[in-house]
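ok new one. same drill as before - structure tokens go in, u give me an amino acid for every spot. 117 of them this time. try not to just spam alanines like last time pls lmao
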């Protein structure tokens, strides 16, 4: 069985780690090159879906509230220190930065699938 897994996933050890890290860096770079205008055009594809139950499914399955505070914030907005300003420009930028983060996750997932193949 172990031999089958090694044949299925030829990268292991150090090379797998380097490959995963590089794929994350590439995904982050690609997403950060997108302008707000480009991100705005992608917005409809990232709307909340009915099966997500307004985000409750992520708490029910992954228990996100238990561990999310331990994940470092690397985006343009630190969620612990959001501005109290509710100006339209600020909220638009916040939503687009969240979209950028979600797109980066999607790219990382796609790269992960490619790496495993």
């Amino acid at each position: 069985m172990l031999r089958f897994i090694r044949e299925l996933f030829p990268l292991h050890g150090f090379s797998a780690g380097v490959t995963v890290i590089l794929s994350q860096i590439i995904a982050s770079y690609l997403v950060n090159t997108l302008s707000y205008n480009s991100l705005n055009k992608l917005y409809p594809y990232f709307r909340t879906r009915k099966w997500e139950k307004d985000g409750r499914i992520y708490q029910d399955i992954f228990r996100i509230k238990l561990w999310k505070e331990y994940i470092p914030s690397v985006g343009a907005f630190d969620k612990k220190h959001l501005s109290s300003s509710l100006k339209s420009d600020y909220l638009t930028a916040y939503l687009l930065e969240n979209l950028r983060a979600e797109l980066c996750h999607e790219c990382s997932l796609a790269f992960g699938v490619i790496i495993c193949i």
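The chain has one domain: 2-68+82-116. and btw The mean pLDDT is 79.
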